[in-house]
Design brief:
- The chain is mainly α.
- The chain has one domain.
- It is 94% helix and 0% strand.
- α1 crosses α3.
Length: 83
């Protein structure tokens, strides 16, 4: 009986921990999407000479932000499927 109660308690703790981790991950993703939006605006306002000098960095940022957007799109699709 005690073992069963312990297993039920551990399962409850695991569920709460999973929800906390998912919430923190969603917060992180939202912050990254905000940073990507900010980076996009900064690149749009940058002089052409600076853009040419930092082409490789801009491509890396663009790829990273596209990955973040893809993850967000997949999450939204999953949320839509639930409703």
């Amino acid at each position: 009986m005690l073992r069963h109660e312990l297993l039920v308690s551990l399962r409850s703790v695991n569920l709460v921990e999973r929800e906390l981790v998912q919430g923190e991950w969603m917060t992180w993703l939202g912050e990254e999407l905000y940073r990507c939006d900010l980076a996009t605006r900064l690149v749009a306002d940058a002089p052409d000479e600076e853009l040419k000098a930092r082409t490789e960095d801009i491509i890396k940022i663009k790829d990273y932000c596209e990955d973040c957007q893809l993850v967000w799109a997949n999450l939204k699709e999953g949320f839509t499927a639930l409703t």
